[in-house]
Specification:
- Among the domains are: about 45-95; about 110-154.
- The chain contains four helices and no strands.
- It has helices spanning about 1-25, 45-85, 90-95, 110-154.
- The protein is flat and about 110 Å long.
Length: about 150
């Protein structure tokens, strides 16, 4: 956020500097006006046509690929639904078998993450206990000091 603000201020200062320099050029008549610049005649080159045709070709190929993919997915889903409704035995043969979740082996990474969570929880509890103990000791010390002062006064 701070870098964005700094960049904004630098850009604003540079823009102000460029405008003030241009104003100084205009005031001191140091600006060279070129009225004799050649006008754009609109020459058409082979490279220009090549770029246009490459762009059009790219768009046509993208459209063809996307259309093919759309048609492919539409046909496969319709066939899947048709097989599911009309031929349940074939559908049952091609269905994926569900794995039992309970017998799944925990991977090394999952085990490491679980152990880390448990360790973090233990550290939090330990810190909380130490903090509570130190707080209770401080409170007891203050109570004893106040009792001693009250005894002195009485």
């Amino acid at each position: 956020m701070i870098t964005t603000i700094i960049i904004f201020f630098i850009a604003t200062i540079l823009a102000f500097g460029m405008l003030s320099f241009r104003a100084w050029e205009i005031k001191t008549n140091r600006v060279i006006l070129e009225d004799d610049k050649p006008k754009f005649t609109g020459e058409l080159s082979f490279r220009y046509f090549e770029k246009i045709f490459l762009y059009i070709t790219k768009r046509i190929i993208q459209w063809m690929v996307l259309s093919f993919v759309k048609i492919w997915f539409t046909i496969t889903t319709k066939i899947r639904i048709w097989i599911k409704n009309k031929l349940p035995k074939i559908n049952k043969f091609f269905q994926k078998k569900e794995k039992v979740v309970g017998s799944r082996k925990v991977s090394f990474v999952e085990r490491a993450v679980m152990e880390s969570k448990i360790k973090i929880k233990r550290v939090k509890e330990k810190i909380k206990k130490e903090h509570e103990e130190s707080l209770s000791e401080k409170i007891e010390d203050k109570v004893e000091e106040v009792k001693e002062e009250v005894d002195k006064i009485i």
